[in-house]
Structure of Lrp/AsnC family transcriptional regulator:
Amino acid sequence: MQLDRYDRQILDVLQQDGRISNQDLADRIALSPSSCLRRLRALEESGLIIGYRALLDARKLGLSLMALIHISMDSHTPERFAHFESEIAQIPEVLECLLITGQSADYQLKVVVADMDAYQDLLLNRITRIPGVTGVHSSFVLRRVVDRTALPLPG
């Protein structure tokens, strides 16, 4: 899909404020409300906009410990990876699971929990019990230096 400057402006504004009204969005990018809505619907229908979400404050929910976990698997078969990915997707504390290269690990997880006791329970009673997990290396986040959800827009 080719994006013109209006499409890029719509996407930029929506990444900052997904709850903006169509009227306010149209005013911000200097388009009529009907043209703005037509473009917005086209961006949604094309699959470029995949959803709208509320971002929550983890600390206010009592989730103050974030960890990055590198996971090594015992074998690199599609079945082993599929089973691991299916199991890890069922754990709500896992915010992100990435299949990676360039490390001694196969996966990197980003998890959030209340404290070290909750982390120990998550690691020992859930993650390491998934068949195929042979190695785990944890790093704890001290501070988020950059924390964005907005993607850079081409053009």
Summary: The beta strands are 65-73, 94-99, 107-113, 133-140. The helical segments are 5-16, 22-29, 33-45, 78-88, 116-127. The mean pLDDT is 97. The two ends are 13 Å apart (CA to CA).
